[in-house]
Write a structure and sequence with these properties.
Elements (H helix, E strand, L loop, with lengths): L1 H8 L12 H14 L15 H11 L8 H23 L4 H15 L5 H7 L5 H4 L6 E4 L3 E2 L7 E4 L6 H5 L6 E2 L6 E2 L3 H9 L8 H8 L12 H7 E14 L2 E14 L9
Parallel strand pairs: 1-3
Antiparallel strand pairs: 2-3, 4-5, 6-7
Helix pairs in contact: 2-4, 4-5
């Protein structure tokens, strides 16, 4: 699937931990100002971090972490912290070769952690597991049943939700993540889509706009793509020039009326 992989490689999903650096920095803030500062979290140092502490972010940015050991959680937290410290030092002093090398090394590790093919086409491919079964370790899920040319994942099965908005809504969600020990508030795109778009008779799915109509395929972009931006918002601008009599003084005046219409199926901005 070379073309699909190339599209994916240009997508935010391919860098779901690092992003542009902002995502990783936000996760560090969530650590320092979040569970490392909370009295009952059990975390005083990075060595105390467990998988459950990171899932507020990793539920969506790296959901496969749920299957990892706590040692992996510590390693990830340490990598984030080391990268951030070195990045700040290198920003202040670009000639600091050690800081630059440390930053680049850890940045490479973080950019290799992602929402890969198997997250969507295996782990997240079934929502109603008691009715549709659990994702199988040897199967990729999509639109067809049959054989799959791979030594490990040698079977294909139909995912009942692959082209439904609920598939995307598992991460681009309803808002509060109440299933966590310490709930978080994050993306509300699916909630907005359900209550402000579908409830008013909207028919299109996330995939139809972000993959099909846009022609983006597995790039699945949003505001960073010019085509998506043009699809999302209508601008209507009217203006005229005049003069304003300020006491006895004529002053130039411009009157501008701007109308913006949201044509997406959800509130913007959102995530």
């Amino acid at each position: 699937h070379e073309e699909i992989h190339e599209d994916w490689d240009a997508s935010p999903h391919a860098r779901s931990i690092y992003g542009t650096g902002r995502a990783a920095a936000t996760m560090i803030t969530a650590m320092k100002n979040g569970f490392m500062a909370w009295e009952y979290s059990g975390v005083k140092t990075v060595k105390d971090v467990r998988v459950e502490h990171l899932m507020g972010c990793m539920k969506c940015h790296l959901p496969q972490l749920a299957d990892a050991t706590d040692d992996v959680a510590v390693e990830l937290a340490e990598t984030l912290m080391t990268w951030y410290g070195a990045a700040k030092t290198a920003l202040k002093d670009p000639s600091d070769k050690k800081a630059v090398a440390t930053r680049d090394h850890n940045q490479e590790i973080l950019t290799n952690l992602n929402i890969n093919c198997l997250v969507c086409h295996n782990r997240m491919a079934i929502t109603h597991k008691w009715t549709d079964g659990y994702p199988q370790h040897d199967t990729v899920y999509g639109y067809n049943n049959g054989e799959h040319e791979d030594d490990t994942f040698d079977k294909m099965k139909v995912s009942p939700i692959m082209d439904e908005s609920i598939f995307c809504g598992q991460c681009h969600g309803m808002g509060p993540n109440l299933e966590l020990e310490n709930p978080t508030q994050c993306a509300t795109a699916y909630g907005s889509y359900m209550w402000a778009y579908k409830a008013e008779g909207g028919m299109e799915t996330c995939q139809e706009c972000h993959m099909e109509k846009s022609g983006l395929g597995h790039k699945i972009l949003s505001y960073s793509d010019e085509t998506m931006a043009e699809m999302a918002v209508d601008f209507h601008v009217e203006g005229y020039v005049s003069q304003w009599l300020d006491g006895s003084t004529l002053k130039p005046k411009a009157v501008i009326k701007v109308k913006m219409v949201n044509r997406t199926g959800h509130a913007i901005p959102d995530g």
